[in-house]
C-alpha cells in the first residue's frame, strides 16, 4: 500500500510545482487534485495547460492519481442531477487527458420528504451513467463515503447495489461512523468488495492499524491518501504523518 495526498485542506493553496516538489521530497507517491483549489486543474483548461500538467507529473516521482470533484447525485430535482452527471463527465474527460486512474464523486445526504429508497435509486442510476462515461474514457468512478446519512456504510452499500456498474467503486473515507465498539470490521465488510480508493484522517483518531490489516486481507494494493485539516507547518506535518504511517504498518 502506497501513501499519497488529497490537496483538500493541507495543500489547497499550493501550485502544481509546489505539490510535485514537496510530495516528491517527502516520499509521497501520489496525489488527488481537489477541484476549486489553487493548482487550477479544472475541466475547461486549455489543451496546452493539460499537456503541461501531465508532463510535469510524468517527469516526477509523484503520480497524478485522481481528480476530486464535488459532483453529487442525491437531489430530488432531475435537472440538478443531470447537471452533476454532465459536470462529472467533464472531470472524467480531463482525467483521461491527464492520465488519471479515477475521479472522486459523492452523495451528500438524503433529502427530507423523499423516500430513502427513491433517493438511493436515483443516486445509483446517476452513478451508473457516470460509470458508462468513465468506461469510455478508461477512468474509474470513485464514490466517496460521504454526507449526512449517506456516509453510513449500510446505505453506501445499498447505493452501490443500486448502481451495479463495474467501473464504479467506493472511496473508503475513514469516517467516525465506521466505528462500532472500537472496530471498523463490520462496516468494512459491507463495502470491501467495492473499495477502489482510500482517504485517511488523523491516524490516532481512527482504528488505523485495523484498517491496514483489513485492506491487506482483501489484497488492496492501491493508494491511501491523506485528507486531514491544514497545518501551520504542512511539510513538517506531512513528514511526521508518513513516518507514523510506515511505523503503524510494521506493527
Helix/strand/pairing class, anyone?
Answer: alpha/beta
- Uncertain segments are none
Q: CATH superfamily, please? A: Divalent-metal-dependent TIM barrel enzymes
- CATH fold descriptor: TIM Barrel
Give a short account of the largest sheet: 8 strands, parallel, barrel
Q: What kind of assembly state do the chains in view correspond to?
A: single chain
How does CATH name the architecture?
Answer: Alpha-Beta Barrel
User: What is the domain total for the residues?
Assistant: 1
Put simply, the count of helices is 8
Q: Whole-Å distance between the termini?
A: 15 Å
Shape: globular
Helix content: 40-55%
How many β strands by DSSP?
8
Radius of gyration: 18 Å
The H-and-E topology, N to C, reads as: EHEHEHEHEHEHEHEH
Strand content: 15-25%
**What is the CATH level 1 assignment?**
Alpha Beta
Strand order of the largest sheet: 1-2-3-4-5-6-7-8
Describe the structure.
- Strand 6, helix 6 (185-191) and strand 7 (195-200) form a beta-alpha-beta unit.
- The chain is an alpha/beta fold.
- Strands 1-2-3-4-5-6-7-8 form an eight-stranded parallel β-barrel, surrounded by four helices.
- The chain contains eight helices and eight strands.
- 44% of the residues lie in helices and 18% in strands.
- It has helices spanning 16-26, 47-58, 78-98, 116-137, 153-163, 185-191, 208-217, 234-250, and strands at 2-6, 30-34, 63-72, 102-106, 140-144, 168-172, 195-200, 223-226.
- Helix 3 runs parallel beside helix 4 (116-137) and helix 5 packs parallel to helix 6 (185-191).
- The mean pLDDT is 97.
- The chain has a single domain (2-250), classed as Divalent-metal-dependent TIM barrel enzymes (TIM Barrel).
- It is globular, with a radius of gyration of 18 Å.
Amino acid at each position: 500500500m502506497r501513501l499519497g495526498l488529497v490537496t483538500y485542506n493541507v495543500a489547497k493553496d499550493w501550485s502544481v510545482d509546489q505539490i510535485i516538489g514537496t510530495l516528491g521530497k517527502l516520499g509521497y507517491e501520489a496525489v488527488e487534485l481537489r477541484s476549486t483549489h489553487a493548482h487550477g486543474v479544472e475541466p475547461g483548461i486549455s489543451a496546452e495547460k493539460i499537456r503541461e500538467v501531465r508532463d510535469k507529473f510524468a517527469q516526477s516521482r509523484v503520480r497524478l492519481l485522481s481528480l476530486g470533484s464535488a459532483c453529487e447525485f442525491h437531489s430530488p430535482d432531475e435537472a440538478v442531477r443531470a447537471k452533476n452527471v454532465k459536470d462529472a463527465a467533464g472531470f472524467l474527460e480531463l482525467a483521461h487527458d491527464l492520465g488519471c486512474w479515477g475521479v472522486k464523486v459523492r452523495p451528500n445526504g438524503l433529502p427530507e420528504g423523499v423516500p430513502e429508497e427513491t433517493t438511493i435509486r436515483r443516486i445509483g442510476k446517476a452513478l451508473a451513467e457516470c460509470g458508462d462515461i468513465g468506461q469510455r474514457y478508461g477512468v474509474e468512478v470513485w464514490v466517496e463515503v460521504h454526507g449526512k446519512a449517506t456516509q453510513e456504510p449500510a446505505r453506501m452499500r445499498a447505493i452501490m447495489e443500486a448502481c451495479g456498474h463495474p467501473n464504479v467503486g467506493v472511496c473508503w473515507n475513514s469516517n467516525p461512523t465506521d466505528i462500532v465498539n472500537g472496530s471498523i470490521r463490520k462496516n468494512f465488510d459491507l463495502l470491501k468488495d467495492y473499495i477502489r480508493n482510500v482517504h485517511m484522517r488523523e491516524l490516532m483518531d481512527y482504528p488505523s492499524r485495523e484498517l491496514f490489516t483489513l485492506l491487506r486481507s482483501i489484497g488492496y494494493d492501491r493508494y491511501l491518501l491523506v485528507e486531514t485539516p491544514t497545518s501551520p507547518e504542512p511539510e513538517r506535518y506531512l513528514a511526521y504523518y508518513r513516518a507514523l504511517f510506515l511505523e503503524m504498518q510494521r506493527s
